[in-house]
Design brief:
Amidase signature (AS) enzymes; 34% helix; globular; alpha/beta; 11-stranded mixed beta sheet; single chain; Amidase; 378 residues
Length: 378
């Protein structure tokens, strides 16, 4: 149950003291095939050049240790993959690691690397981060280059980092985003104003979110986002259409996993009317989030509404789509969103605290997360 698909050492300079990072197998590394953990792409030719984010990491002195495993074609929430194996959840090996960036979250949580890159189209960085007890960031849509990342065409997907500590996550962002201001991300955020979003989630996780805000000493108030469910459904419609467009032809190979084959066939049923309705919801939800952020610096809510289910339950057919009910809406809207490990009273696992900021305010999201991180370890 390896977090990796392939392991190697790649660095532009002396590797001796370089921080280590692993790269999701939907991101190009020159000389290595980008297979998206799919048998249908196993014979893909090696990439001719690095994705922009990979080149920037190498230029910044990072050591790349390999390509990480993932849910096939980045189209699933469990991380289960019967072709490449299922990465181990560092918090509980009996539970799913989350998808689709399962291997990246697992590698970081197991301490195999200092950091990892994943991609987040419907929660695929934040979900695995919450499952595996690590930190993961979905940047503002369009802020981090996707050149050399699959799928090529998307209105949802973002490249984002995983780390065990905010200081390391900020270092990764400084490398992959030339516009990222590390000084602002490390600035004192104790005076930040926080809106706590009312959501449907396990009572213990909701209480833990409120406790974290109190521990951090933030001024806070309750916030309603009435269109969250509509945004969740609209996000599903968009990801279905865009994933079919990118990978639907692979059904003809007969080499897809059973879950992917079924999901892609269902995605084909997404109509133009569904997409028109989804785009209308996108406009409404963006306005709602922007309005909620007009009077606060960030919004906070659980990353996942419950702890991850077991591998046995997932294999038995327990639906996991609701796992993304609190994260997928912010892919639709494009706002930056980060998942921070969250202790829950009486629980052996950590949950995830999600922090959402204004578009382009990724540094503020990181600063608030760093302040909460420090408050929770005191």
């Amino acid at each position: 149950m390896s977090a990796y698909i392939s392991e190697f050492d790649l660095c532009a300079h002396d590797c001796a003291d370089a921080p280590t990072i692993a790269i999701k197998d939907s991101i190009d590394i020159a000389g290595h095939a980008t297979t998206a953990a799919s048998r249908a792409l196993a014979d893909t030719v090696a990439a001719a050049e690095h994705a922009d984010v990979v080149q920037r990491l190498l230029d910044a002195g990072w050591r790349i240790t390999g390509k990480t495993n993932m849910h096939e074609l980045a189209f699933g929430m469990t991380g289960i993959n019967d072709f490449t194996g299922t990465p181990r959840n560092p918090q509980d090996a009996a539970r799913i690691p989350g998808g689709s960036s399962s291997g990246s979250a697992s590698a970081v949580g197991l301490g195999l690397v200092d950091a990892a890159l994943g991609t987040d189209t419907g929660g695929s960085v934040r979900g695995p981060a919450a499952c595996c007890g690590v930190t993961g960031l979905k940047p503002t849509f369009g802020r981090v280059s996707r050149r050399g990342v699959a799928p090529v065409e998307t209105t949802l997907d973002c490249v984002g980092p995983f780390a065990r500590e905010m200081r390391v996550l900020i270092d990764v962002m400084s490398a992959i985003d030339p516009s990222f201001d590390a000084g602002s991300a490390r600035r004192d955020a104790s005076k930040a104003r926080v809106g706590i979003v009312a959501v449907d989630a396990d009572a213990g996780i909701r209480k833990a979110v409120e406790h974290a805000v109190r521990c951090a000493g933030f001024a806070s108030r309750g916030v309603e986002l009435a269109s969250m469910h509509d945004a969740f459904c609209a996000g599903l419609a968009v990801i279905n259409a865009e994933t079919w467009h990118a990978f639907g032809h692979l059904i003809e190979t007969g080499k897809l996993g059973a879950d992917l084959d079924a999901r892609l066939r269902a995605a084909l049923n997404t109509t133009s009317a569904d997409l028109d309705a989804a785009e209308n919801v996108r406009r409404i939800f963006i306005a709602a989030v922007d309005h909620a952020l007009a009077d606060v610096d960030v919004l906070v809510l659980p990353t996942l509404p419950a702890f991850p289910i077991t591998l046995d339950a997932a294999r038995a057919g327990t639906s996991v789509i609701a796992m993304s009910s609190l994260i997928r809406p912010f892919n639709l809207s494009g706002h930056p969103a980060l998942s921070l490990p969250l202790p829950v009273e009486g629980a052996s696992l950590k949950a995830g605290l999600q922090i959402v900021g204004r578009k382009g305010a990724d540094e503020k999201v990181c600063a608030v997360a760093a302040h909460i991180e420090a408050a929770l370890v005191q």
